[in-house]
Specification:
The complex is a heterotrimer of chains A (about 350), B (about 300) and C (about 575).
Chain A lengths: L18 H10 L2 H21 L12 E7 L8 H5 L5 H4 L12 H17 L4 E4 L10 H37 L1 H16 L2 H11 L4 H12 L1 H15 L2 H8 L4 H37 L11 H13 L4 H28 L5
Parallel strand pairs in A: 1-2
Helix pairs in contact in A: 1-14, 2-6, 2-14, 6-7, 6-9, 6-10, 6-12, 6-13, 6-14, 8-9, 10-12, 11-12, 12-13, 12-14, 13-14
Chain B lengths: L1 H29 L3 H5 L6 H11 L5 H14 L12 H36 L4 H15 L2 H15 L12 H8 L1 H27 L2 H8 L4 H24 L2 H4 L2 H6 L5 H10 L3 H29 L7
Helix pairs in contact in B: 1-4, 1-15, 5-9, 5-15, 6-9, 7-9, 9-11, 10-11, 11-15, 14-15
Chain C lengths: L5 E13 L5 E13 L3 E5 L6 H8 L7 E2 L5 E4 L2 E2 L5 H7 L4 E4 L3 H4 L6 H13 L3 H14 L5 H4 L9 H13 L5 E5 L7 H18 L2 E6 L2 H7 L2 E6 L2 E7 H6 L4 H9 L13 H5 L20 E16 L3 E16 L3 E5 L6 H8 L7 E6 L2 E2 L5 H8 L2 E4 L13 H11 L6 H14 L16 H13 L5 E5 L7 H18 L2 E6 L2 H7 L2 E6 L2 E7 H6 L4 H9 L4 H6 L1
Parallel strand pairs in C: 3-9, 3-10, 7-8, 8-9, 14-19, 14-20, 17-18, 18-19
Antiparallel strand pairs in C: 1-2, 1-4, 1-5, 5-6, 10-11, 12-13, 12-15, 15-16, 20-21
Helix pairs in contact in C: 4-5, 4-7, 5-7, 7-8, 8-21, 15-16, 15-17, 16-17
Classes of the chains: A mainly alpha (about 350), B mainly alpha (about 300), C alpha/beta (about 575).
């Protein structure tokens, strides 16, 4: 609301903190929360830089020898680098026989052909890379950065869509009650009577693979928890006297739903959003690992872990650590930020 | 009580109808013509023609829906598109291994989580409490995949304590030889989030007025926790187990995939990869039904822990 | 009482709470008082006075962030309870000193039968077996006056009424024959008729068991009936302590005087209630002429309610619905510029009447005639024009203002909706004037509700209604949540505004003294029906109905009654 001050009234506007300002003040006093926030912001900046092509632009270039050692292990023996040219690792190095269900199995050959093609044009391959190389000699660190771009993007957008769906439906059900509520509860019951994992897999079975698909799948299956909480929040607030007072002064339904109640439920929604980002990043990793996620020509933490499974057996641990650790780092920070947000936003604490 | 159960069963009908519609929408409308889905997967054109006829793809949608409904209620989803095995047989044979893994997981994990949670809640606010919470948060942030890959490599491959993977015909051998590593992994990974959740349940109860009354009576703090707080916290814990229970049958599909356990979870992942629609449809519909019955069961069990519940 | 030995001596008690890393809040600032043997001592104060905190500190029942300095002492038989080990405290709690709390519903464990909860204390402190404890529990329930005790021991708390729950709490507290019973606002959550019974029960038990009672309350009326000795607290310090006789007959401290005078009385109706400032400035209560109240034949009627009914439906059985009538066939007239008081106990339907007649609930039957138009028959669009003319002020000042709006937003929103004021500038100007009118600084305009106290928020809620220039104002328990000193200020404001704007009030309250003070006419409700309507003086002097008489006799008469006896 733009407050227009009549000139003759000599009132000095005092700085008066709203609830958001107070929450921010509390968050700033929370050291763990601020460090977590810094880490999350750093990851987001990395994602944007990677998207803009400033970072990890050439992640796909094969600049090192196969399974190049990390720089700090320069002296370690690297048998695979020498053998890779005339041995087929795709099948030999796999002690775990997953060929009938390993979604990547048919691709191994294709990748190798492509790798072979590019290898011709390659002039000189490095013996070591900062954090080691993968089978094709690509820099694992750059892969992890590029992978974070996909994983975080999927997590953020899917969580945003799921939150919007959950919030709108929850607000409608909680505010109107009656038949609207009955209908939406029916809808909710359908989605929740199918175990969550199964629901995701069922959606994944019928949609084509792709980045947009995985976002749609996660959003369409992940809204139920938010819906329930927002609905409960709306039911609670509809009984509050300030909403009754708004009705008494003649505020419209729209105004009561979105101008009066929504800001008061927003802390719940924000915490849910943050929680779902974490959950969806984890889900994306698993889906991509299963081959149901991002397309093969993209890299995400999940596809890196899929490769890492076989590398570990031959002692090449760096891809596992790079993908696992960068994800753990981000998710830990995000989870702690969520906890801090919950504390900071809780209006009970005042 | 009887009236309550009947009403709940009655209310299941629209939900079940909704589930059937959702699955029909996904697989017959979004999923489209099996001939296209299967192109390249099944070379035998006769078989494809059979499937098309069986589904009535040429028929209008209402007829296809009718076929689907019949399938649901006659327990006859035909044969798998990829292995030609009967779907009903696939389901029945895959449940055993999944439960062999998941039942021990559920029982041990719940007991451990409740025990640890009450201990942590007892020392709430202390350094121990905060340290455990930070460890939990960090442990939860590492991907399940990393745990599995690492543990399989370390305990199976490197140390050789457990078989890397496998399954047998003998139940006792499965339980004692093949199950322990996946079971321990599942418990290890599941414990952190459960512990955090149950701790919050206990803390919620500790702040209630009746706890102050118990203290005012002169009860020792341990008795307050083990009798008054625990008994009340069981109510949300039961709710949580109720949510968790239907997932039991899908199992930890990742574990099944990694350890080559022929369970439902692995079957579903395989079916999704092969676009084996009859299997996915059957699993989804029946698990949804099962979930509804489990929810009803849990709600009836509620009466045991919460005297305030009345079946009106 | 001069020679009686002291059971408990509290000396220089200080309690502070850690708010966050840098801030602590001192709730009790060095208080001292004694509890004599076999006496009832009342700790009186308004919210934030530190009375409950002091009592809980004695038993070590404070939350974990509380700190008590070493210099503070609570001597019980020569032993300092504040420094006792947890084991020692556990032995004393429930055995020597026991407590009953304000909210009996939440203070009992919902999942155990009440007999078990009483028996637990007996097994713990008296070493009784389960069987002995169970049979003793039956005796105790009988002693606190619960009918059918042998059956009731197996009941769960939610199966009992609020009054019965509090009786169970009392049974639990007296089970081990304690020497001191701490009663922390034990009747505040109860209806006035139940309050009277519980007070009589506590007084009877005190005498019978020769215990001391530390009675914590905000209500001086109750104190006069039950206490021998009174400690008056304000903001964490003791302002005055004396015998009950001295407190009521010759109060020394201005705060005590203010507490005694601010509360409306049944026998007098000054034009304005004295407020706390009158006493703190030392001027004392100004002499006020009496305000005549009442409605005469032929007074103009602004609102007429005919046969109003409201039924709620609960789902039951397979397809069944159970009808729960909340309001049954209520008819009354509201005279212009007058106040109609609406009294009743909880569940009497008085609030539902208010909400239904302004269409915040849908009525099941009846008519609400406002200037001859039936409001219940209007469409939503037609109703808009009438909405602003009937407004409501709710009970809970903490819930009735949107916490995310500034006061400016709160005040200008209704003006915008109803097109009051030509432009934004004019509306802001009006908001400033109204803030001034209800006694708040203009700078409040930019603040948020959480920066105001309960009384100030209620003023804001009043200002919000006034922006729409209403004709009828419904006050739904609007002063019930406020401390007496603040209550008096808000009541004075409401009276002033009534005169200034010729407002008509429907004043809903469970507090008969307040209703009697502010109303021209009083309507008594019970179980959804009207029991009696009459001019307020008539109904208090000469109640026609049995239920009205019962309600009136339950009002704590305070010191007057004790003195008369």
């Amino acid at each position: 609301m733009s407050a227009v001050l009549p000139k003759h009234i000599p009132v000095v506007r005092e700085a008066s903190p709203g609830l958001w300002a107070l929450a921010w003040r509390r968050l700033r006093g929370d050291r763990v929360g601020m460090v977590s926030l810094a880490v999350v912001v750093a990851f987001l900046a990395m994602m944007l830089a990677s998207y803009a092509g400033i970072l990890a632009k050439d992640w796909n270039k094969e600049r090192g020898v196969s399974y190049a050692n990390p720089a700090f292990l320069a002296g370690a023996e690297n048998l695979e680098a020498k053998e890779v040219t005339h041995k087929d690792f795709g099948t030999q190095a796999k002690p775990v026989d997953l060929s009938d269900i390993d979604p990547l199995a048919p691709r191994y050959k294709e990748w190798e052909e492509r790798a072979a093609k590019i290898a011709v044009t390659e002039v000189k391959r490095a013996e070591t890379l900062p954090f080691g190389g993968d089978k094709w000699g690509r820099d694992v660190l750059e892969k992890a950065i590029k992978g974070s771009e996909v994983s975080i993007f999927v997590g953020l957008t899917a969580a945003l869509f799921a939150t919007i769906i959950g919030t709108v439906l929850g607000a409608l059900a909680g505010y109107w009650g009656g038949r609207v509520n009955d209908f939406l509860e029916w809808f909710y019951n359908i989605f929740t009577s199918i175990p969550y994992i199964l629901l995701i897999l069922a959606f994944a079975a019928v949609f084509k693979k792709g980045l947009d698909t995985i976002i749609v799948i996660l959003a369409l299956t992940g809204w139920t928890g938010i819906y329930r909480l927002v609905r409960a929040e709306y039911i609670k607030h509809c009984g509050r006297e300030y909403v009754k007072a708004a009705q008494a002064i003649g505020a419209s339904h729209f105004s009561r739903m979105f101008v009066h109640i929504l800001p008061n439920a927003s802390h719940v929604i924000l915490v849910q959003l943050s929680q779902h980002v974490v959950g969806f990043i984890k889900a994306e990793v698993i889906l991509s690992f299963l081959g149901l996620g991002v397309p093969v020509d993209m890299v995400s933490w999940g596809t890196m872990l899929a490769e890492a499974q076989n590398e570990l057996v031959i002692g090449k641990w760096w891809q596992l650590v790079a993908a696992g650790a960068s994800m753990a780092f981000l998710v830990t920070a995000f989870s702690m930020l969520t906890d801090s947000l919950r504390d900071a936003l809780d209006p009970k604490l005042k | 009580m009887a009236a309550y159960v009947i009403r709940r069963l009655w209310q299941m009908i629209p939900t079940l109808a909704g589930v059937i519609l959702l699955i029909f929408f996904l697989f017959n409308w979004v999923g489209g013509d099996p001939a296209q889905v299967l192109a390249g997967k099944i070379s035998n054109p006769e078989q494809i023609a059979n499937i098309r006829k069986q589904l009535g793809v040429d028929q209008p949608y209402w007829y296809q829906l009718w076929v689907f409904v019949q399938q649901v209620f006659t327990f006859d989803f035909g044969r798998s598109w990829s292995t030609n095995e009967e779907v009903s047989k696939i389901l029945l044979t895959r449940v055993g291994p999944t439960l062999t893994i998941m039942v021990p997981v559920l029982v041990i994990e719940t007991m451990l989580a409740v025990a640890f949670a009450i201990m942590v809640a007892y020392v709430r606010g202390s350094l121990t409490d905060r340290t455990i919470m930070v460890i939990c948060t960090t442990a939860m942030s590492i991907s399940f995949l990393v745990y599995i890959i690492f543990a399989q490599w370390l305990f199976g491959f490197k140390l050789g304590w457990f078989p890397v993977q496998g399954w047998s015909e003998s139940f006792s051998r499965n339980l004692l030889t093949y199950a322990p590593l996946p079971v321990m992994l599942a418990i290890f990974v599941g414990l952190a989030p459960q512990l955090r959740l149950y701790r919050s349940f206990f803390l919620e109860e500790i702040n209630q007025d009746y706890v102050r009354t118990a203290r005012a009576k002169g009860l020792p703090e341990k008795k307050v926790m083990m009798k008054h707080v625990l008994r009340n916290a069981l109510i949300p814990i039961l709710t949580n187990i109720g949510i968790y229970l239907p997932g039991l049958f899908v199992g930890s599909f990742l574990l099944e995939v990694f350890f080559s356990i022929p369970g439902l979870g692995r079957e579903i992942v395989t079916a999704v990869n092969r676009s084996d629609f009859p299997v996915i449809k059957a699993v989804t519909v029946y698990l949804a039904m099962l979930t509804m019955f489990i929810n009803l069961l849990v709600d009836v069990l509620y009466k045991l822990v919460d005297p305030r519940v009345s079946f009106k | 009482m001069t020679t009686s030995e002291h059971l408990l001596q509290v000396q220089d008690l200080r309690v502070s709470f850690r708010v966050d890393k840098h801030n602590t809040f001192e709730a009790v600032k060095g208080i001292s008082f004694d509890v004599p043997k076999n006496r009832t001592i009342a700790l009186v104060g308004e919210s934030g006075s530190g009375k409950s905190v002091s009592a809980m500190a004695i038993l070590g029942l404070l939350p974990e962030n509380a700190r008590i300095p070493a210099a503070s002492r609570a001597l019980y038989g020569g032993e300092d309870l504040l420094k006792a080990t947890p084991q020692r405290l556990q032995a004393i709690r429930g055995k020597d000193i026991s407590v009953i709390f304000q909210e009996p519903m939440t203070s009992l464990n919902p999942v155990f039968p009440v007999g078990e909860q009483i028996g637990e204390t007996l097994r713990l402190h008296m070493g009784l077996t389960a069987r002995q404890a169970a049979s003793r529990a039956v005796d105790l329930l009988a002693e606190v006056g619960i009918p059918n005790p042998a059956l009731r021991v197996r009941s769960f708390p939610h199966e009992l009424s609020g009054g019965q729950q509090q009786r169970v709490m009392i049974a639990m507290a007296i089970a081990c024959e304690p020497k001191l019973l701490i009663a922390d606002e034990p009747t505040t959550a109860l209806d006035v008729t139940i309050q009277k019974q519980i007070l009589e029960l506590i007084a009877g038990l005190q005498e019978k068991h020769h215990m001391s009672v530390l009675f914590i309350t905000h209500d001086l009326g109750v104190v006069g009936e039950i206490a021998n000795h009174v400690v008056v607290m304000q903001n964490g310090v003791v302002q005055e302590q004396a015998t009950v006789h001295a407190i009521f007959e010759s109060p020394q401290h201005p705060y005590t005087k203010a507490l005694l005078e601010c509360r409306p009385r049944l026998d007098r109706r000054p034009k304005r209630l004295p407020v706390i400032d009158d006493f703190l400035k030392g001027t004392g209560a100004p002499r006020m002429e009496e305000q005549p109240r009442g409605v005469k034949e032929g007074d103009a009627v602004i609102l007429e309610v005919k046969g109003l009914g409201k039924t709620f439906f609960l789902k039951e059985g397979l397809f069944g619905k159970r009808a729960v009538p909340a309001v049954k066939d209520v008819s009354f007239k509201l005279a212009k510029g007058k106040t109609l008081g609406l009294v009743g106990e909880s569940g009497s339907g008085k609030t539902t009447v208010g909400l239904t007649l302004m269409r915040l609930h849908d009525a099941t039957s009846g008519e609400v005639l406002f200037e001859g138009k039936n409001l219940l028959a209007l469409s939503d669009r037609e109703m808009m024009a009438y909405r602003r003319r009937i407004q409501i002020i709710f009970q809970n000042p903490y819930a009735s203002l949107n916490p995310r709006f500034t006061i400016g937003n709160i005040l200008t929103e209704p003006m915008k909706i109803h097109g009051i004021g030509a432009n934004a500038e004019e509306r802001v100007e009006m908001a400033f004037q109204l803030l001034k009118r209800v006694g708040l600084p203009e700078a409040s305009y930019y603040k948020y509700p959480h920066e105001f106290s309960g009384g100030q928020r209620q003023r804001i809620a009043i200002a919000r209604c006034l922006t729409m220039k209403p004709d009828v104002l419904i006050c739904d328990e609007s002063v019930s949540a406020l401390d007496v000193s603040v209550q008096a200020q808000v009541l004075n404001l409401l009276q002033d505004l009534q005169e200034e704007f010729r407002l008509s009030y429907i004043f809903i309250s469970h507090d008969l003294a307040v209703v009697k003070y502010i109303s021209d006419q009083v309507m008594v409700m019970n179980q959804g029906e009207i029991v009696e309507i009459a001019n307020s003086d008539e109904i208090y002097l000469d109640p026609k109905q049995e239920y009205t008489r019962k309600l009136l006799s339950s009002i704590p008469k305070g010191w007057d009654a004790a003195r008369a006896a």
